[in-house]
Amino acid sequence: MPPTVAACQLDVSDLAVGANLGAVERRVRDLPDRVDVAVFPEYALTGFVADDRIRDVAVDRDGEPVDRIEALARESTTDLLVGFVERDGDALYNAAAYVAADGSKTVYRKRHLWGREREVLEPGDDLVTVDSPVGEAGVLTCYDLNFVEDSAALARPEVEALFVLGAWPAAHSENWTLLLRARALDGVRWAIGAGRTGRRKLAAAREVAYAGRSLVARPDGGLRASLDRRAEDLVVDLDPEALARQRDLVGIYDEEGGRGSELGANE
After folding, report:
1. First to last CA, the chain
2. CB 20, CB 44: distance < 8 Å
């Protein structure tokens, strides 16, 4: 059977970790048994606001909320990728934990902060890949999609997918779709994007409508499947032969595993 991914489009409750944990747990338990990897949006556990309130709900990567995600992954036999504000000493990060069903955990910290994130968060340093049922996969968060150099650094033959967590404003939703498709195309790999939906309605904070529009982009940059703004799950089987055919067509990787000279060829 081909690997199956789910992009779990969520209406996040800002500054309400308990409510968000409950929502994630319910969504995972309702997924079809065949799902191998479930990707949740940026800040899925904590939400976000650019003031001191976010410090009060920030999560330690080894703390109880992430422990519950680990238990959920084991129980469901599904790898989970979930975003949150991470506390590390006095520093805060926009983090994503990839928790495998076997108990292993990898944390990525968003490298490219957007807007007022820079007022309260620190940027991450490292690009991260994870071993997943889809194959090796790079992890990116939202605004990271805009940086072609990061995508290029992850364009390696062993990287067969990108997992992308998003909280993209609805006003710019076309850019989210465009960039996910571009990042699939420029590395010839799958791109799985899980977006936040709903609205942020929080006292003393700007109201924001979120795009939703979770999607899976094919290795040729086309849309495999997508959602609108409803809070639901996009469950997609990924055909390994589709990836192999597209890589063979464009000749992106040479026999030694490097980038070939025919990238972008139409032959």
Report:
1. 31
2. yes
Query: What gap in Å lies between CA 47 and CA 31, rounded to an integer?
Result: 23
pTM over 0.85: yes
Q: What is the pLDDT of residues 192-205, one digit of tens each?
A: 999 999 999 999 99
Amino acid making up residue 107: V
Q: Which structure tokens are listed for 115?
A: 């807007």
Run of H or E residues at 10? strand 10-11
* Of residues 86, 100, 78, the one with CA closest to residue 34: 78
Amino acid identity, residue 160? E
Q: Report H helices in the chain.
A: 17-30, 53-57, 64-76, 117-120, 148-153, 173-187, 240-250
* Residues 144-154 pLDDT 10s: 999 999 999 99
In the numeric block, which tokens belong to residue 231? 């809070």
Cβ atoms 86, 66 nearer than 8 A: no
Q: Which residues contact residue 236 at a Cβ distance below 8 angstroms, ignoring those fewer than 6 apart?
A: 4, 5, 6, 7, 192, 216, 224, 225
